[in-house]
Amino acid sequence: MLKIENLSIYSEDKKILNNINLDFENGKIYLIFGPNGSGKTTLSKAILNDINYRKEGRIILNDIDITNMKTEEIAKYIYYSFQNPIEIENIKTRTILMNILKNYNEENIKKIGQELGLPDNFLDRGINHNLSGGEKKRLSLLLSILLNRDVIIFDEIDSGSDIEFMEKLKYYINKLKNEGKIIIIISHNMKFIKDINIDVVMILLNGEIKYIGSKEIINKIEEHGFSIF
Amino acid sequence: MDSQYFKDLFRKYYDKEFDRYNIIENIYNTENININPGNNIYINKFYINSENLNIIINNQNKAILYNEFIVNKNVNINFLLDNNKEIYIYNLYNIYSNINSKFDEKIYNKNKAVIISRIYIPHNSENSDARLNQIVYDENGISILLPILDVFNKKSRGFHGSKTLKLNNKEIEYLNYLSLSKEDIKNILIKEFLKI
């Protein structure tokens, strides 16, 4: 279980996030939805303690206070899939995986990579290096499958993706949910959102949570916009 | 060759201390060579007998190395320097005719390294292609790389490229998100780098 208690983030005098209280239960899919600049990515980065701004409140994961843990420590429990993954030329993907996976099984990794549509030699390349935008998303999904973290945050993983990948994405998100993971999706893509079995929608507007509830709200927002809040 | 020769070769980087050094000459003709220099000046001549020539220099002393590679066959030379003290290296790649060869110099530097790497293709060496790539990973070290391309035959080509191995903040942040600390990243980089 992941709990966010009274979380506020301040940039000088301005509050970027205002008194956020959220509970995430295992085996559920959450959607954090809101317009650009509403604080969605800031919230994700705050969970991983990757914020240079002043922070108040607490973040608890499985009864452990992770609020001030180092990002690399939190990342042992939470996988954050970047909206725009960084390319690193100088370290091979294989080397990174061998260092972060408890059980490195190259055959299995290649098999899933192939199924997701990654190039045959992706392990021999630098991580994300010379991969197309779609291939980077595939690698992100592969990492979310292999890393076996308690919480997975998909930040716009669906943006610019093709139909084939979207199908795989839906399949694996459900699979990860069924394994008891907490899945947090950040997305603007209405079609993708409607296709996923989202359990809880959280609406974030100007750094404040305005709604926590069922997926029905998405239809209302589609019809009337965020002015309903 | 005497110490004056090396004084002219390294010019402002030459240390007076080297005047007292012994000059030691070696000839190598095997595929894998490990060198641990002492406080000396070394004149090393390398003959090519296979497709690859792997040289690992682990330096714990202040030394000068003059390395001449007789490239009369196609070869990939992998040159790895693990430098812990001051080292002054002159690598001369002497290219013959009809050669297509690649020279990778990797320098893991924790002290001071002055490296002059010269591709020399004389007038009578036709239709040759020689490529020198240098990668430096500096760990609180000073690396001075001075590449020289001397291509005297119009039908031959020489190429030089160099880069520094360093991760930027965005790359480190990305790896932190994969649960790797700065120390982990450094160790991985070095381990990867020290492979030949």
The biggest beta sheet of chain A, please?
6 strands, mixed
Output the structural class of chain B: mainly beta
In total, the number of domains of chain A comes to 1
CATH class of chain A: Alpha Beta
Number of helices of chain B: 3
Characterize the structure shown:
The complex is a heterodimer of chains A (229) and B (196). Chain A is α/β, with parallel strands linked by helices. In chain A, 34% of the residues lie in helices and 28% in strands. Chain A is built from eight helices and ten strands. Chain A has helices at residues 40-47, 71-74, 93-100, 106-116, 133-147, 163-178, 190-195, 216-224, and strands spanning 2-11, 14-24, 28-33, 54-61, 64-65, 78-81, 151-155, 182-186, 200-205, 208-213. A six-stranded mixed beta sheet of chain A has the order 6-7-8-3-9-10, with helices on both faces. In chain A, α6 (163-178) links the parallel β7 (151-155) and β8 (182-186). Chain A starts with a strand and ends in a 5-residue tail after the last helix. The mean pLDDT of chain A is 94. Chain B has two domains: 3-165, no CATH class; 166-196, no CATH class. Chain B contains three helices and twelve strands. In chain B, the strands form two sheets. In chain B, strands 1-3-5-7-9-11 form a six-stranded parallel beta sheet, with helices on one face. Chain B has a six-stranded parallel beta sheet with strand order 2-4-6-8-10-12, with no helix packed on it. The A-B interface holds A 48, 50, 70-73, 75-76, 79-80, 82, 85-86, 88, 90-92, 95-96, 99-100, 127, 143, 147 and B 165, 167, 170-171, 173-181, 184, 188-189, 191-192.
Key terms:
heterodimer, A: alpha/beta, Rossmann fold, six-stranded mixed sheet, four-stranded antiparallel sheet, 34% helix, B: 196 residues, mainly beta, 3 helices, 12 strands
Describe the secondary structure blueprint for this structure.
The complex is a heterodimer of chains A (229) and B (196).
Chain A: E1 2-11, E2 14-24, E3 28-33, H1 40-47, E4 54-61, E5 64-65, H2 71-74, E6 78-81, H3 93-100, H4 106-116, H5 133-147, E7 151-155, H6 163-178, E8 182-186, H7 190-195, E9 200-205, E10 208-213, H8 216-224
Helix pairs in contact in A: 4-5, 5-6
Chain B: H1 3-10, E1 23-28, E2 32-35, E3 41-47, E4 52-59, E5 63-71, E6 76-83, E7 87-95, E8 100-109, E9 112-121, E10 129-138, E11 142-151, E12 157-164, H2 169-176, H3 182-193
Parallel strand pairs in B: 1-3, 2-4, 3-5, 4-6, 5-7, 6-8, 7-9, 8-10, 9-11, 10-12
InterPro entries (chain B): SUF_FeS_clus_asmbl_SufBD_sf
GO cellular component, one term (chain A): ATP-binding cassette (ABC) transporter complex
Pfam family, one (chain A): ABC_tran
